[in-house]
Amino acid sequence: MAADGQDTRVPVTVLTGFLGSGKTTLLNRILSENHGKKLAVIENEFGEVGVDDALVRRRFDTQEEIFEMNNGCICCTVRGDLIRILSKLLKRKEKLDGILIETTGMADPAPVAQTFFMDESMKEFARLDGIITLVDAKHIVQHLDEEKPEGAENEAVEQVVFADKLLLNKTDLIDADELAVVETRLRQINKFAPIIRCMNASVPMDEVVNVHAFDLDRILGIDPEFLQDGDHEHDQSVTSIGFEKAGDLDMERLNGWVSKLLQEKGVDIYRMKGVLSIAGSEDKYVFQAVHMLFTGETIEPWGKDPRVNKLIVIGKNLPREEITNSFLACFTEAAK
User: Sign of the CA dihedral 275, 277, 283, 288?
Assistant: First the structure.
């Protein structure tokens, strides 16, 4: 705290939202803006294989530093790792303008927020600036209504409840009447957070970073035990299947595999994303899907990078052996 009463601690933004809501897209926008700020980014992925590192574009002479944690959910097993990374960042002589923490889509943001009130070193050097929740306009109601096993929390609900600001993304995928229904539903859960409509996670950076939005009193009103370290339980039927394999994929087989998988299992597939090596192409192929919606595009040449396919499938009651065998059948004969 400065002598004039200004809070000089480093602002920390927690970027949350259910799987496929657009967190990595927003992060990409922030990383590619010419804002001149010195930022640190901490990523956390849910799954066996980390893909986001390949999806987050790094610019030359960038002012951002990116740290990755993919050995567990940030709200559970890796909070110690989070504190260690933050401690290293905050001990540096060079002052940061901000820290962004992108949580996994399966994270409850509350335990992440607790870190900045329960750890003395964090309280001294960093302040929680805001919990920014991205919302997938097309699929959010489905996730809010999903029945969970007894004792397991609905992460999509928790992410809306604790939001200081709601970025209602992918508004182009639904009509005006559906949009009104979604906003009404969000308001029923969180009456206070401003709702900002957007497409492709396109929002000004000053709506996300250094917004002074976190209100501890409001959170204590929702959860009086917020400052107490309690346990929480995830839905154990939600799992991930990860692939990391060198070689080239046959595009025709891959398209057939994706179409069949999403047609048969799309309701239960929360998220698919990958960076793939396609036979006959020199470029990396980025594949993303949320339930039955999917897109694919080439991004940049492989160049000297090893042509290793990375793909993650996250969903409910996934038939691991069936999905694994059918994906591996998409590789060219030379790669098998």
Answer: negative
| DSSP letter (8 states) at residue 333 | G
* Cα 333 to the center of its chain, rounded Å: 35
- What pTM was computed for the model? 0.67
- Dump pLDDT digits (tens) for 122-137: 788 888 999 999 999 9
For residues 247 and 148, give the distance between their C-alpha atoms in angstroms, rounded to a whole number. 39
Angle at CA of residue 113, ends 107 and 118, nearest 5°: 130
DSSP 279-303: TT-SEEEEEEEETTEEEEEEEEE-T
Contact, 246 vs 216, CB < 8 A? no
DSSP string, 159-198: HHHT-SEEEEE-GGGS-HHHHHHHHHHHHHH-SSS-EEE-
**Which amino acid appears at position 327 of this protein?**
F
What CA–CA distance (Å, rounded) separates 305 from 55? Answer: 14
At residue 316, the 3 state secondary structure works out as strand
For 140-160, give the DSSP string.
Answer: HHHHHT----TT---HHHHHH
Look at the block and give the residue holding tokens 């009651």.
317
Q: For residue 81, which of 132, 56, 52, 115 has the smallest C-alpha distance?
A: 115
Length of the chain: 336
